[in-house]
Design brief:
- The complex is a heterodimer of chains A (423) and B (444).
- Chain A has 423 residues and is mostly beta strands.
- Chain A has a single domain (16-313), classed as 7 Propeller (Methylamine Dehydrogenase, Chain H).
- Helices cover 3% and strands 53% of the residues of chain A.
- Chain B is of the alpha/beta class.
- In chain B, α18 links the parallel β5 and β6 (349-352).
- The longest helix of chain B is centred in the middle third of the chain and has 18 residues, at 164-181.
- In chain B, 51% of the residues lie in helices and 7% in strands.
- Chain B has 3 domains: 14-142, Fumarate Reductase Iron-sulfur Protein, Chain B, domain 2 (Orthogonal Bundle); 157-308, Rossmann fold; 316-435, Rossmann fold, CATH 3.40.50.
- The chains are: A mainly beta (423), B alpha/beta (444).
- The interface between A and B is large, with 50 and 45 residues.
- The complex binds iron/sulfur cluster (2 copies).
- Chain B: It comes from Candidatus Desulfaltia bathyphila.
- Chain B: Residues 42-70 form the 4Fe-4S ferredoxin-type domain.
- Chain B: One of its GO terms (molecular function) is oxidoreductase activity.
Chain lengths: 423, 444
Amino acid sequence: MVNSENWDWECKEKLVADTTKWKSQFEDVWEPYISPDGEKIASIVKVGEGEFNIAVNKETWGEEPFEKIWYPRFSPDGRLTALITKEMEWTMAVDGKTWEEMYEYIWDTKFSADGKVIAATTKQDGVYGITVNEKTWKCPVNLQSIASYVISPDGKTLAAIAQTVRLAEADLDGFLKGTWSVVVNGKPWKDNYVDIYGLTISDDGKNIAAEYRAAICEYGIVVNETPWNEKFGCTWEPVFHPTNSDEITTPVRQGGQWFLATNGRIVWDTGFVSLLYQTYSPDGSKIAAAVAPQFAKWTVAVDGQPWSTTFNECLLKPCFSPDGRKVAVIAKDSGNWLLVVDGTVLGDGYENIWPPAFSPNGDKVIYKVEKNGKYAVAVNGKVKGKEYEALWNPVVSPDGTKVMICGVEAGKYYRKVVLLSDL
Amino acid sequence: MKPTIVKREPVVDDALDHCATKLTPEQIEKVVNEVIDKETGGRLWTYVNTCIHCGLCAEACQWYLSNDRDVSYAPVTKVKDTIWVMLEKKGKVDAAFIKRCSEIAHTECNVCRRCGMYCPFGIDIAYMMMVVRRICAKLEMVPLYLQDTVHSHAATMNQMWVKPDEWIDTLQWQEEEGQGYVPSARLPLEKEGAEVMYSVIGPEPKFLAQLLGNITAIMKVANIDWTMPATAGWDNSNMAMYSGDFEVMARVERLHYETAQRLKVKKIVMGECGHAFRGAEYDGPTWMGWMRPPIPLIHAISFYYDLIISGRIKIAKKAEGPITVQDPCNVIRNAGLGKKLRYIMNAVCENFVDVTPNDRHNYCCNAGGGVINVGPPWKKKRVQGNRIKAEQFKRTGAHTIVTPCHNCHSGIEDIVNTYKLGMHVKFFSEILIEAMEIPEDLQP
Ligand code: SF4
Ligand code: SF4
């Protein structure tokens, strides 16, 4: 986990960097990223023809530019990573220092929860792999492609959806025999599948599950290489119980309706036109999901019971308050994005709403909104404080009393800490 | 009812030929009845019971007209020889019948919906052909190359087996190409909060990468805050919709929209493709339970219309000589963009020569509806099945045909070559990039 206890929760306002200076200093400045603690702001900058660098606060990453840089991402422990190229080869750079190995290609940087593990997908001599802290998987088969991968919170388990068998052009039989599998820390599962989707690792890192396609229009869930006995017309991504990783829940389609199934058994007896984004409460005692009881009428169902309010466009993933008593969701209705808590719409509609954070006791929900091209922090349906040109998601302090708000005003990047009670 | 006389040159399609040998009568009966009972409803029954077999729809179909009014190509015959029999025999049909159903629905009908406009009752024959396709898909009776394309969608979430690194690498390369027109142009990857996510279809990175360079320059000149994803979800096309594999169709559409939601964009602008618009605007959202796309979707025709009419893009030098256009069924007949298409054609062409019939009444390119994706074995029949399109273009005297759709583009190229029309086939953006004014401060 990101250890936010050591962050500066005392300083009320810091001008971290005047990014207006970057505009005159460099030929071009790309969109900024900030470190999790808000103390650093970084942008890729163009310093000459085919020459790029990264500006971080008042510095750049050394004197020597790179041919290309992209995908700047801060690790949870505050190190800045980016993917760079030198003489047509690619590698990872961490705080300006490049990995020793160069690759044909590198992409999709991911981190363990504490940021100690930095991983990415790499391709070398036409073979795909995952590179973890500079070490590339040694896989007994040459991986033909990697569609995506996941990393456990402790960073010890990495699993990828990978093509393990070469497929000739238009080889339908070969495809249906299975060319895709799950590769865990470099070791492929024993079986291949037609397709694999929705790969996930339990929070304790012990169990791995995915959707698999058994045949045209036949889908199931496979957990640690063992498929559920039940098959379905379709499935969506499974989710592990947060504290009991032997339990896994997924939406399944039967007879043209969607149901929720746990470990293969239907647990919500109501079928829906659509069912997505099932989410466990922090203690795992409840499940909320986005559902459409009727066509184009979307709402949240908690333990199978839909709210009475519905929305005519769509819903994003619901989230529980830390105590599990409340559920918030971002909904879209008639072109407006709305923040909804337990079926009640809070405040106005916005052009955009970002995932909310709850106060520890769940009485306040804090989130970033966009209106007229400007950004602001909203609390329980009301905009609080200034508008920003750029703003990042507000972060609640570990003791639940303060909120960190990081944003850009008139080109200047500020990090602010406010009392939750003042919001 | 009299059997239809069907005269066709034999075509070898390994998938249909092979899968037909594996089908059992029980399996066929089960799937036919399952689809008819559980996946259709009043709509199918109304169409079937309303049709008076008058044959007025025949004159609408380019297959019928181009094959010297061979009745076996008439829309109503396509229904009579497929779904009527299945209903009448309650699914007790054999493998040879199902194979013929796939040939009819996948290789002899573009689900273009022209015939529905000529039917006095507005019967949507294309819908019934989609039901036939669904049955065939569940029986794995899909032509080889179309099924392979659907497998690509299922495995990679794009149409052309493009691997994740190939996608990103191509965008980075095309950014440099775009800078050939406008040095300060950028193709911003993964820019959260941009106004627009631009999405394309699989063939662009695979065969037509220059279109990505073009859009990079166009976006800079128009000063659009835009992005493209560096993950799967970039491909807006959907051949699974056309094979009848609606589960794969939905997964592809869902990812497309969730990618836009993840990037927090206001809208998706899509490149020049008709079927992709249908899948992303109608069929995909409907299956997902969305009334409309959860992020608004703008077709390239509407986007360019907005840019030109608002003056965000000015035309410096119109393209010379007679230029004509192909109206893609899915965005013109089925989404009403015909007037906008004519506006932008006139804006960039010195001498735009329209086709007749045009707009909503235009003939299908005969490649759409997944028909070009059934591949080389069926190409000869497809091109012969659109002689009237060749004649239509010939009458315009144009040197270039603009096709704001990928399927139209490939299909029309085949027609131009086969009928020796000696015309160029271009996307609208290819004309625009040459015609638009690049403001002085952006010039190389
Ligand atoms: S190709 Fe078009 S006009 Fe012909 S039958 Fe199919 S939908 Fe009707
Ligand atoms: S025009 Fe309509 S009623 Fe007449 S045959 Fe065709 S579908 Fe049937």
